[in-house]
């Protein structure tokens, strides 16, 4: 059985102590073991700060972008191998594996292009300069410069490739070294990805480190110039934010946590119409893609009371056609959950939903035989039902709840807002007044709003995170923000105001005097 090692201080190191075992979620066959016990994390962080930081800061944006371009090429060259690992260790169908691996490649390529567009500069000019007094020579200008620390990035189990790439792309382009910690249960993809980059010698010394196994006291070792980007449960995010060093040193923390994403069908989208069919397709895809283990998956399905019964029947019919089984088989549409603990958590969540609503399709019982399988589950709640559990807990699996509403935009917005913050919600309507009312009502609670339409060619649906747009959300979703093109660099940079002589400042920042 393979032993996964961490890459720290430019060498592969193996932890001591009792290892954790990684398995194939479809067969429960042991695949690898890993431990981080005994590893000197403080020394590894110091190496990244001393070696990786200066090397990256010495490069221009275009040069850093070229590093990302080469990283993407290295991953692309091993794409098939990584897809096979994602199927074996992640329980992904091949289509789901492509969603992760190709998403990583595309994000790196996108940020490589951003780097190229920023050219020879090594820091960002932030907005226009301003005259500060009567004399035009007294001038002010904001700039963003790379922080002199390390970017620690703790990723979730569901996207071991894309999660690493989307965080690392922004940090490396900004000029900060990355210390990546993938979730243990699905770490084989991230580990192999790191092996590829080390073999190809793509990045400067200290620019990218990898810790596999338990994070131990990693967040407690960070200081004022460091940043921490975390994707996972809201409870863990809260504990990280409360660590004494995080509070004392004002360590920057970005959290992407739970999200009760909603999809709202407008009253004008009648059954059989193109808009209705687009809505139905997107809900079915988001419920079952990666077995519902996406932070952007649709959890709450809002439908006008007049269409609720038809939607229930159509969703049930669509879910019935989803073949659940070993993801290595071509006919399988949905694979298992990622781990036994994940299966237990989903079953508990479905039980809580069932205490208030009724089952419209599927059940939470594990399927017979080996593996962490469960059928898709659709719960149904009557109009005006309290449905407290629906708006309070994200069931991280192929589970969604059908909620009837009056058809009024204000009612739909009020129901969506009960989720207390989300990554993305989607609207399906051509009624301009309805759209305006719902968007204005739910926008403060979300990082992104997807406006579905049948005329969008090859629409990715609301569940696909694109690097050009921000990813994150307020409240329950963690209050963080990632990606968004150049915006994604801000978390890894320090905004500073330059104040003084206009010619001196303009020469310093590379702006020509007028």
Protein traits:
seven-stranded mixed β-sheet; 514 residues; single chain; globular; Aldehyde Dehydrogenase, Chain A, domain 1; alpha/beta; Aldehyde Dehydrogenase, Chain A, domain 2; 22% strand; five-stranded parallel β-sheet; 14 helices
Question: What is the helical fraction, as a range of percent?
Answer: 25-40%
List unreliable stretches of 5+ residues.
none
So how many helices? 14
Name given to the CATH homologous superfamily of the largest domain: Aldehyde Dehydrogenase, Chain A, domain 1
Oligomer: single chain
The structural domain count equals 2
Major sheet details? 7 strands, mixed
Q: What fraction of the residues are assigned to beta strands by DSSP? A: 15-25%
Radius of gyration: 24 Å
What's a quick, concise take on this entry?
It is built from 14 helices and 22 strands.
């Amino acid at each position: 059985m393979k032993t996964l090692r961490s890459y720290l201080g430019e060498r592969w190191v193996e932890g001591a102590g009792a290892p954790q075992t990684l398995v194939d979620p479809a067969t429960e066959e042991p695949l690898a073991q890993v431990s981080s016990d005994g590893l000197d994390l403080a020394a590894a962080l110091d190496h990244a700060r001393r070696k990786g930081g200066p090397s990256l800061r010495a490069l221009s944006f275009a040069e850093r972008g070229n590093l990302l371009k080469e990283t993407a090429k290295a991953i692309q060259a091993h794409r098939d191998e990584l897809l096979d690992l994602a199927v074996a260790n992640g329980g992904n169908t091949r289509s789901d594996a492509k969603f992760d691996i190709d998403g990583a490649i595309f994000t790196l390529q996108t940020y490589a292009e951003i780097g190229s567009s920023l050219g020879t500069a090594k820091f960002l000019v932030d907005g226009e300069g301003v005259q500060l007094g009567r004399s035009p020579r007294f001038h002010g200008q904001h700039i963003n410069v790379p922080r002199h620390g390390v970017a620690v990035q703790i990723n979730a189990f569901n996207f071991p490739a894309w999660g690493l790439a989307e965080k690392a792309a922004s940090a490396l382009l900004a000029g900060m070294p990355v210390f990546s910690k993938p979730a243990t249960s699905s770490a084989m993809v991230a580990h192999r990805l790191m092996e590829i980059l080390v073999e190809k010698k793509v990045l400067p010394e200290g620019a990218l480190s990898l810790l596999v196994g338990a994070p131990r006291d990693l967040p407690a070792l960070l200081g004022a110039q460091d940043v921490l980007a975390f994707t996972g449960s809201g409870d863990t995010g809260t504990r990280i934010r409360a660590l004494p060093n995080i509070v004392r040193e004002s360590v920057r923390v970005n959290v992407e946590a739970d999200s009760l994403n909603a999809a709202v069908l407008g009253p004008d989208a009648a059954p059989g119409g193109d808009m209705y069919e687009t809505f139905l397709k997107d809900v079915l895809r988001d419920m079952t893609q990666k077995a519902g283990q996406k932070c952007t998956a649709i959890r709450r399905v809002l439908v006008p009371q007049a269409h609720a019964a038809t939607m229930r029947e159509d969703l049930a019919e669509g879910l019935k056609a989803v073949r659940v089984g070993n993801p290595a088989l071509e006919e399988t549409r949905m694979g298992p959950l990622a781990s036994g603990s994940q299966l237990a958590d989903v079953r508990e969540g479905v039980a809580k939903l069932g205490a208030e609503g009724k089952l419209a399709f599927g059940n939470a019982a594990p399927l017979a035989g080996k593996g962490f399988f469960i059928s898709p589950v659709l719960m149904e709640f009557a109009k005006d039902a309290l449905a407290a559990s629906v708006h309070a807990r994200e069931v991280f699996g192929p589970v969604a709840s059908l909620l009837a509403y009056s058809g009024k935009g204000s009612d739909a917005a009020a129901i969506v807002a009960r989720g207390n913050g989300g990554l993305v919600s989607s609207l399906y309507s051509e009624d301009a007044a309805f759209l305006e009312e719902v968007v204005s009502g739910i926008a403060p609670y979300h990082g992104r709003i997807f406006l579905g339409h049948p005329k969008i060619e090859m629409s990715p649906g609301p569940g696909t995170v694109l690097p050009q747009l921000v990813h994150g959300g307020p409240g329950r979703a963690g209050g963080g923000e990632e990606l968004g093109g150049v915006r994604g660099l801000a978390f890894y940079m320090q905004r500073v105001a330059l104040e003084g002589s206009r010619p001196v400042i303009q020469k310093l920042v590379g702006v020509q005097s007028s």
